[in-house]
């Protein structure tokens, strides 16, 4: 997904900042992500899959992000941008953890259970695909709204990647497809986190409307 390259990207939004539709979408996304975090953390540990564990941690981070978004919906742009900045850095930290965990699995030669990866990945893809479609209308909002869309988009892509990894593990009898997919997911998390941080910083640097009018 292309990111905004100017300081006025959030001004294109016509979305209400605290509409019932926006808050309802956030609550649904929060419930889905919290539930699948618990499911994937258990399944990932049982299957020995770096990709599933990475996806589970991503679910946890997104659930926290949606909760923050609910807390700042309707507040001033400065507070929403600060929340987005926290979410962006959180995503970067999670991505670094994923890459470190992936390196450990590569060194130890873990062989994950492909059937568990495939089943859980399919269920998560269906759930996250629905959430991404629900949030698609908010993709051009301010940094806070945009960060929610980026997280949901990354989740759906990550779930599809987990399924591809499961097929690769099953076909090759090695854990390398799992390691490769987990590394890609970590890179995607770094990219998404940096997009969020960059737009949030641009919004925080922008003068308040009242100050501009006074000058």
Detail the topology: elements first, then pairings.
Blueprint: H1 20-47, H2 50-72, H3 77-108, H4 114-135, H5 143-172, H6 176-205, H7 209-214
Helix pairs in contact: 1-2, 1-4, 2-3, 2-5, 2-6, 3-5, 3-6, 4-5, 5-6
How would you describe what is shown here?
The protein is mostly helical. The chain has a single domain (18-214), classed as Up-down Bundle (Alpha-lytic protease prodomain-like), CATH 1.20.1510. The protein has seven helices and no strands. Helix 1 (20-47) runs antiparallel to helix 2, helix 1 (20-47) packs antiparallel against helix 4 (114-135) and helix 3 (77-108) runs parallel beside helix 5 (143-172).
Give the averaged pLDDT, no decimals.
77
Alpha plus pi helix count: 7
Helix amount = over 70%
Report the order of strands and helices.
HHHHHHH
Q: Give the CA-based shape.
A: elongated
**What separation lies between the terminal Cα atoms?**
37 Å
- Structural class computed from helices and strand pairing: mainly alpha
Structural domains: how many: 1
Protein name: Cation transporter
Domain Cation efflux protein transmembrane: 26-204
InterPro entries: Cation_efflux_TM, Cation_efflux_TMD_sf, CDF/SLC30A
Main location: membrane
């Amino acid at each position: 997904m292309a990111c905004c390259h100017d300081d006025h990207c959030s001004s294109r939004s016509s979305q209400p900042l605290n509409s019932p539709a926006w808050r309802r979408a956030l609550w649904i996304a929060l419930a889905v992500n919290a539930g699948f975090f618990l499911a994937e953390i258990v399944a990932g540990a049982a299957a020995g899959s770096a990709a599933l564990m990475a996806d589970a941690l991503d679910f946890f981070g997104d659930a926290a992000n949606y909760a923050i978004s609910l807390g700042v919906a309707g507040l001033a742009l400065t507070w929403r941008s600060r929340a987005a900045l926290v979410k962006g850095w959180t995503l970067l930290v999670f991505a670094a953890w994923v890459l470190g965990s992936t390196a450990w699995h590569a060194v130890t030669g873990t062989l994950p259970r492909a059937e568990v990866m495939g089943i859980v990945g399919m269920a998560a893809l269906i759930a996250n695909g629905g959430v991404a479609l629900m949030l698609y209308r908010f993709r051009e909002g301010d940094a806070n709204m945009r960060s929610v869309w980026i997280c949901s988009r990354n989740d759906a892509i990550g779930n599809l990647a987990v399924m591809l990894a499961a097929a690769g593990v099953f076909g090759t009898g090695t854990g390398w497809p799992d390691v490769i997919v987990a590394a890609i997911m970590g890179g995607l998390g770094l990219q998404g986190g940096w997009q969020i941080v960059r737009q949030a910083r641009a919004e925080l640097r922008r003068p308040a409307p009242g100050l501009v009018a006074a000058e």
